[in-house]
Amino acid sequence: MYGGGYIFDEPNKKQLREEEQHDEPEKLAAFEERIAKGEKIEPGDWMPAEYRRQLIRLIEQHAHSEIIGALPEGTWITRAPGFKRKLALIAKVQDEIGHGQLLYNAAETLGKSREAMINDLLSGKSKYSNVFNYPAETWADVAVIGFLIDAAAIVNQVANAKGSYGPYCRALERICYEESFHLKQGHDAFIELATGTPAQRDMLQDALNRWWQPIMHFFGPPDKVSSHSEKLMQWKVKMASNDDMRNQFLDAYVPKVWELGLTLPDPALRKNEATGRWEYTDPDWDEFFRVINGGGPCNAERLQVRKWAEEHGRWVRKALMRPAERKTFPAA
Ligand code: FAQ
Question: Which residue ranges does UniProt annotate as crossing the membrane (predicted)?
């Protein structure tokens, strides 16, 4: 187990056990009535233990995704083509880390400490988004991430920002503003490659081919398989099902890719105008579950980088948390 200077505690466990014993039917009915009326639930309010548990799981995974999500693009900061692109990419990567901070704060309001969350990420207990376990091989990968993965994240977050838990919704609102700038920089880089030289178009097409399946996986397994959706939608934590979000994304972004003369690696992909739903070849869900359970091409590398960062940042955390020890530093 990683010994990064954090205590391996989960202070929410006792609280959860106590709440589970007190999930009284009248309280549950009043809670569900508030949700049905569209009220926000705030940290001090009564909530069922399962609502708290699910929110911690989902917000924590989201926070980890932002922090790990900075890594594939981060490797391109030193290699970005030109000063303007480099500046934009630095700002974007910095924003993603900021989103992680906002989300860890939101999850902490539910009683799980930041330390426990980081430990669960580093030990492999907590999940994070499948897409960040693939390598960003070329600059075109950065364009595809900035355009299509940010777009997919926005579809999900705009929906969830209207959900029931106040601190998560408020964090998502701010995140969505910033993500819309990320989308613009990704779209701009994407267009430049799509309208560039034949070599640039080929590079972009190759990146699209490699990223398409992870992007289809991004919204989670099909509704009939999704284990948490029903409860989370009933409690307005998730405001749309996985398949509905996937459909909304395809509706908005496939035409934008096709109008640039690029292709997507699925001959069955088409919109059924009669139903308004997109039809596609089912992506390989075995691959999805393998990747989210630690078996993707970059899982080990991603966690190793985070462990390195935790270890090498320990002295900073120590200095910030224990001001008295600073007196031992030589006077300037
Ligand atoms: N990756 O029952 P469901 C971003 C797991 S932020 C990994 O359908 P749920 C910004 C799920 O945890 C991206 N695991 O799950 C950025 C569960 O496993 P468990 C992150 C996944 O929660 C852009 C199992 O499968 N966004 O990109 C994934 O109801 C560019 C069963 O699935 C969020 O986290 C997945 N894709 O619905 C940064 C948004 N999908 O826990 C840098 C908040 C499912 O039982 C660069 N999250 N699983 O062991 C959500 O809205 C939901 O969690 C879903 C999944 C919709 C992702």
Answer: none
- For residue 4, the model assigns a pLDDT of 37
CA distance 45 to 32: 13
Tell the residue nearest (CA) to atom 43 of ligand 1: 62
What is the whole-number distance in angstroms between the Cα of residue 42 and the centre of ligand 1?
A: 23
Q: What is the per-residue pLDDT across 179-201, written as a single tens digit (0 to 9) for each?
A: 999 999 999 999 999 999 999 99
Instruction: Region of 238 please: left (phi>0), alpha (psi -120 to 50) or beta.
Output: beta
Question: Using CA atoms, how far apart are residues 237 and 249, in angstroms rounded to an integer?
Answer: 19
pTM (predicted TM-score): 0.92
**Cα 58 to ligand 1 centre (Å):** 7
For the stretch 70-96, pLDDT in tens is 999 999 999 999 999 999 999 999 999
